[in-house]
Amino acid sequence: MPSAPTKLYADDVSLLVVLLDTNPFFWSTSSLPFSKFLSHVLSFLNSILLLNQINQIVVIATGCNSCDYIYDSSLSTNPGIENGKLPALCSELLKKLEDFVTRDEQLNKQHSLPPTTTSSSLLSGSLSMALCYIQRVFRSGPLHPHPRILCVQGSSDGPEQYVAIMNSIFSAQRSMVPIDSCYIGSNNSAFLQQASYITGGVYQKPQQLDGLFQYLSTVFATDLHSRAFLQLPKSVGVDFRASCFCHKKTIDMGYICSVCLSIFCKHHKKCSTCGSVFGQAQSDVASASNLKRKTPET
Amino acid sequence: MNNGNGRRLNGETEEDDDDEGSEGDLDAWERTYADERSWESLQEDESGLLRPVDNTTLYHAQYRRRIRSLSSQATTARIQKGLIRYLYIVVDLSRAAAEMDYRPSRMAVVAKHVEAFIREFFDQNPLSQLGLVTIKDGIAHCLTDLGGSPESHVKALMGKLECSGESSLQNALDLVHGYLNQIPSYGHREVLILYSALSTCDPGDILETIQKCKKSKMRCSVIGLSAEIFICKHLCQETGGSYSVAMDESHFKELILEHAPPPPAIAEFAIANLIKMGFPQRAAESSIAICSCHKEAKVGGGYTCPRCKARVCELPTECRICGLTLISSPHLARSYHHLFPIVPFDEVSPSVLNDPHNRLPRSCFGCQQSFPNPGNKPSLRVACPKCKQHFCLDCDIYIHESLHNCPGCESFRHSKSPIATEE
Predict the structure, then answer these.
(1) Which residues of B touch A168 (CB under 8 A)?
(2) Which ipTM was obtained for this model?
């Protein structure tokens, strides 16, 4: 496992991996139309590339049935490079994004997702792919840009992805990759708040979505070195409380099974996840300090 | 280490630092030509250019064997792991720790790797506690009590690195046994002994002590730095721990880091219990309170115990006022990957690669690195058995050692693997 990257490049060279949420369920109900959103994001990406000649951008789309790489600025197949002009990322990116969204919708039809399920996008998948790409950059030698991840997300959190997202967050923390979040949905996203807090990134929920480009370029375009002396939005009220497994309500004091770490709000006789019977010695030797002896339930 | 001419005799001037190996008369620069032959680690590739020998496939093959053996144990034993661990590390600071076969001395190497181990231990087992014991002059001293903060342990260890006297295994085991008897019954009791000496000088019958430890369900493991000793092997066999002897510094590092992930739990050893824990909220930025750990007034940025409302500075910790264990949900989440491990990936066989009917992905699904054209070489790609995506060898190692998620399975909603309910 590589440790902290060596800083041999100039301090402000960055690799930005952008995870764009393309979940059609969210975009159909959003106040900001998807096309306007894309124009904000494209201007932002162009501005990142203008900040430094060797900055890199990778765009990964987070759909509701699949995730895929959309754009990588370091690939030399980009058109326009031989004229000496800045490569126009618009056309290629938009085309690939359109193909991706079409494929994603096809998958929707194939599996006939019932429309009433709360649809979340596959954030865990795109985070995992982003982290694999960043590991590849770390392996590429001593000279590499400083990577960070920016999640532009609007869909709500999918509780089934909790374990996978937490694994990705801890892996990002170990590799020292900050995860910034720009949340454009309605309520705050607890997962993204935790991600940004744990990895040292910035979480922001822009108040006015038609000024999205301003938020992106003032807060999220800052490179890691400059963050030491810039005032960025501070994290306020990250909720680290857990939810109990039985009722899914947030608790601030609970009981943890010592075998499988499931959280319960009330004292139970038996763990519903791993089946261990509590307080019962599993061998012949009596335990000294137990509270009560229960006969095992059938 | 001298293996060629002459044993090391005490008191004689030794020139072994310069003349290791059997050729006592070659200088170091000559040895690089005679012994090490650096040109042999180069190879010509198809176009006649030189490049270093491809060690990645060998390394990867070793890595895969290790993962296979670990996962086969886990699946047959129904993956029960001891997640709440109370571990004592016993560092041998007897005369033998000053030996210089590890540079600069055994003691310094052990201290450096114990520091790395402590950080890794708390990273992988956030609910566990660690304590340090040293053996010096035949007596065992408790350096730090069982606690959950890595900094205090590391500071205590680095502050007191001197060695002298004999080593006594029985005294260390007695001391640790006394402390570990006081821990709650749901915790797994473990001892890790880093033993440099070749003997032990005990006041009584060590076999009795070993039986005592076995009865208290303490799992004792030993990592030896000198040679295999019968009593250590007996101790480990009786208590169910693992015994290994390090050959050099990097091997020692590997051996000690193997103890960081939770070991497979022997079901009778710890009693399943419901532990009451608190999930404190972060205090508002401008609140002023006296913190219970430093006993001074602090502004903002701490956590409030939900039971007694005392302020604590960091998590995980035990509230000093009411004794409630305080953690946050990410700490629990750090251990979930031990409970829901991902399956090892399968190698893609060259026959599949060479079959022209198969439409193979050209690049790794995770990092988009393009695969070299398949030839007769051993395959450089692996596939996830559930989602069937192809990954390169480096992504395979990263996914299994650090990320614990398969990007392919996570990126496709309908290729699902069962994940238990959480949150």
Answers:
(1) 403, 405
(2) 0.84
